What does this fold into?
Amino acid sequence: MTDDDTREQGVEFGGFEETMAAMDYPVETETVVEEHGDAELELPNGTTTIGEVLDPLQDEDQAYQDADELKTMIKNMVGDDAVGREGYSDRGAPTETDGDDEDSL
It folds into this structure.
């Protein structure tokens, strides 16, 4: 991963990061999908689009107050597709069981 990567919790936002920052908020899911639905997000196992990720929410009158709120929803909606390798996740900090376990010696 380079310093230019915008990967968060398994999702690489790429150019959509700047697009989100430039949007007029609040913005509804329907508007995001209509105007930016073909924008691609890179996942560890391929790509998806904003439209594919947010499509299930279009009937819910969901509005985002800022780019952070929209980004959080996208990360929540990609689900398991952003996990990558089975048994490994870059979606958070290590837990107590990660790393060396002295009890197992």
User: Anything to note?
Assistant: Strands lie at 7-8, 11-12, 27-28, 40-43, 46-49, 63-64. The mean pLDDT is 80. The chain has four helices and six strands.
